Amino acid sequence: MTPEYRTALIELLYQLADDNFILAYRGSEWLGLTPHIEEDVAFSSINQNAMGHAAIYYQMLEDLGEGKSDDLALLRPPAAFRNAVLLELKNGPGNYWDAPDYDWAFAVVRHFFFDVFKSIRLNALKKSSYPPLAAAAGKIVTEQAYHLMHWETWFVQLMMSTDEARRRMEKALSLCWADAGGLLSLGKWGAVMAEHGLTATEAEWRDQWRQAIGQSFARVGYVPIGEPGMAHGDGRNGEHTADLGEALSILSEVYRSDPQATGW
Amino acid sequence: MAAAVPFEQWTAEEKYGHFMRRIENGEKIEADDWMPDDYRKALIRLITMHGISEIMGAFPEKEWVPKAPTLRRKLAIMAKVQDEMGHGQLLLRVAEDLVKPCGKTREDILQDLFAKRLKFHNVFHMPSPTWADAAVIAWLVDGAAILSQTMMLKTSYGPYGRALKRICQEESFHAKHGESLTLSLAEGTPAQRRMLQEAIDRWWEPLLMFFGPKTKEATGHTNVDKNLKYKLRTKTNEELRQEFLSKYVPKIRLLGLAIPDPTLRYDDEKGEWIYREPDWNKFKQIVTGNGPKTDERLRLRRTSYENGRWVREALAQWKAAAV
Fold first, then answer.
1. Chain B hits for A38, Cβ within 8 Å
2. What is the pLDDT of residues A75-127, one digit of tens each?
3. Up-side HSE of residue A201: CA atoms within 13 Å toward CB?
């Protein structure tokens, strides 16, 4: 492994781990607060899967000598995170334990955008030049069809029902669209990743994502304005909002609480 | 009684007699079977309370889901709380079938909860201020729940028994998860041990209360007797509490933890545990909706229910359009 290959690989693994970790956290904040009990159960399965995937990628980083996987998830500063900014944004005003005014439309659109992207990325990673990653992607991608179906069902039903739902969904769509570009970014090491066959190129998965999302938009008669943006910066390069810092302090509160502790 | 008389023409007494013979023979009653109103009411009270307790029971733990210390613990507690919501869903389905002939739906059950007409277990009205509370809840509250749910596995109402079978299987995983969390803290640093001891101190009285008062004089009603008569349950509150003490007191002591009751001891002569009675007035206050966290958690539940109204309306319209 050349130093350049190693750097690009590590950057890519952080993108994968952090995306899943942060979105699983945002999803877990919804626990007990979703529109109905059946959704609480289903959504929680999806979040557990994502958290499990994050753990797999952090373990790969640990195996590469980056440090203990729990430390990687919980002790890095926000600027070291490589997740797309879209995934770190708060679910809405309030906290999950106190007066949450969470936006279900935002949750649906964000997860739908992400899961369409996650499928494309996993399919590309099945051919990755890094064998452990290719093997993991092949395994993970099999669950992906169910998650996609889940969010696509929500997306279509809410877009095609009441006027209020449509209005809320369109608002969420424009919010998510403004940062969807950050999902599709590979960051400053992207060209090296593609060159070494670690992933597909950024242009390839951008096209695939646009096409897949375009089909769903056509089904519900929605036309986005402009191209997916990076309104809050490119998380792949360490640019983040204050929402991430806040999330990380909650995620690591117990882990940090006793520096002498060797086990939990 | 002529065998040719169809069941619909039987007198109320004949129907009741037939029903009670089925109960005494250990037959299972199904949702569409004839049942006396009294039995239906007892079931609705028992199963809605159980179902809503599972759902409200997710709240004290869910506070710790995002904060669980490690990736492994985060995954485990996510799965655990999801199971509780799943149990709530399973039980609400059973309850929905029972309230249907009364013209009621899940919406009514939830409105009863919000209006405090529906009780849920005392333990879920209590605060859970530290990670150790999540450990003690999973270990001891779930451990207590297993005892009372296992006792009801042979319940006369078929749908409830089948739901309980699955619930008990999952609860035993939870108790193992809880035991593992507790062990890590017990074997940990002085700060971790202190946090654990404080959680035990907080939860001891609520755990004793969990099984309910000893006698009907103390409860002021006879639900337990009625549930025994209809074979919905097979043991009294006190029998369950004694089982709990026998199972867990030695385990807690083995971890070097103190139980906050200096009078606690096993009386060899009587063959039972002697313990300090919990404050049953406090219990009554808590379960009627005046516990330390009742209002906060109900508010959280109600707010999220109201925030989701537009979603439920959208789904209803989608469903209507699809027909």
1. 89
2. 999 999 999 999 999 999 999 998 899 999 999 999 999 999 999 999 999 99
3. 5
